[in-house]
Amino acid sequence: MNLEDFKQEFLSFLNEKIQVKEPVNLYKPIEYILEIGGKRLRPILALMVCDLFGEDYKKALDVALAIEVFHNFTLVHDDIMDSAPIRRGKKTVHKKWDENTGILSGDAMLIMAYQCVENYEPNLFKKLMLLFSKTALEVCEGQQWDIDFETRNDVTINEYIKMITNKTSVLIGAAMQMGAMVSNASGKETEVIYNFGLNLGLAFQLQDDYLDTFGNAETFGKQIGGDIIENKKTYLYLKAAEICDENVKKELFTLYNSQDIDGCKVQKVTSIFKDNSIDNLIKNEIQNYTEKAFKYLDDLSISENKKEVLKNFGLGLMKRTI
Fold first, then answer.
1. Residues 160, 37: Cα–Cα separation, whole Å
2. 216-261 confidence digits (pLDDT tens)
3. Angle in degrees, CA 150, 142, 66, rounded to 5
4. Strand partners for 91
5. Is residue 175 over pLDDT 90?
6. Closest by alpha carbon to 199, among 282, 283, 314?
7. Which of 14, 34, 79, 219 is the least crowded, having the fewest Cβ atoms under 10 Å away?
8. With 0-12 CB in 10 A as exposed, 13-18 as middle and 19+ as buried, what is 130?
């Protein structure tokens, strides 16, 4: 099956399982955020890995749904924390309803995500739950670091990589490891595929950082320059602060400590990034993490053709515009 086939199978399963019931104001926002699209990267990975390790991909549909519901729960709450008006080109949940609804519906999604894993036999259920709980807590840690970094002016690139590892990469790694677990792959192989996903997740998030500043608003589905407006210390900012001369650093520091939210701030910061080739430097870093991920494929016992499937998926992420 190709990726689009996996996506369509997952969407059919999603539509079957996610139903609006009473109270409508709790469940309607859940249906809304899950229906407005997204790449479905994580559930596709769970299904694909299960298939590549020789098991019927349908066995992984429940973990795929768990991962997707959990991921969207984090987005609902993140959007509230970031005061984000748009998600995937549509109003965010707290803007379409209100913040209290966003908080409560998000809480319900977290519980629903755990419920999805209940369908597996006890031994597998325990393994999946241990990984899921560990990952969920790591994502919360990553989100807190992200918030902390907004008011710090001494964030290092290493700290930033640790933050995005927890906030983004661990969930991608977990999606792949869960798919492998469901297929009864060996413990060693599930760890290898986790590390593959972890590094692919870092490349994915760095690409997200790049697109947030240099992407196209219509295809990206989020406000361009949102990270700059929110004073987020992304790789772009941190690399600029590391290599620019003192005058440029002072200007950057002033801009990132400003509450100015008009387009002028975004334009000025973007110009600094371009003038200092930060856009090219982050592209190099995206490639580095992608290649690091590919090295883990050597330790898998699956066929070369199947490794090629994973490699092509990673290369596709590097070139994405959404």
1. 28
2. 776 766 678 888 988 888 999 999 999 999 999 999 989 988 877 6
3. 135
4. 86
5. yes
6. 314
7. 219
8. exposed
Residue 20 tokens read as: 């609006």
Instruction: Please list, in sequence order, all residues whose beta carbon lies within 8 angstroms of the beta carbon of residue 41, skipping any fewer than 6 positions away.
Output: 172, 204, 317
Reported as a single tens digit per residue, the pLDDT across 67-100 is 999 999 999 999 999 888 888 889 999 999 999 9
CA atoms within 13 Å, Cβ hemisphere of 170? 21
61 with 13: CB under 8 angstroms? yes
> Half-sphere exposure of residue 113, counting CA atoms within 13 Å on the CB side?
26
CA distance 121 to 48: 21
Nearest to 167 by CA among 105, 243, 114, 232: 232
Question: So what's the pLDDT on residue 86?
Answer: 86
- Nearest-10 crossing angle of helices 187-214, 170-182: 150
- Which domains can be identified in the chain, with CATH numbers? 3-318 (1.10.600.10)
Predicted confidence at residue 168, as pLDDT, reads 93
Helix and strand tally (H, E) in the chain?
17, 2
The Cα-based distances of 25 to 22, 29, 97 in angstroms read 8, 7, 9
Give the length of the chain.
Answer: 322
Residues facing residue 87 across a β-bridge: 90
- Answer yes or no: are the C-beta atoms of 168 and 204 closer than 8 Å: yes
Give the CA angle between residues 139, 143, 147 to the nearest 5°.
170
3-state secondary structure of 108: helix
| Nearest-angstrom CA–CA distance, 78 and 87 | 11
**From the CA atom positions of the chain, what is the Rg in Å?**
20
- Helix ranges, 215-320 (H): 217-220, 226-229, 235-243, 246-256, 263-275, 278-296, 304-318
Q: How many CA atoms lie within 13 A of 63 on its CB side?
A: 34
Within 10 angstroms of residue 62's Cβ, the number of other Cβ atoms is 21
Residue 194's nearest CA partner among 214, 210, 178, 205 is: 178
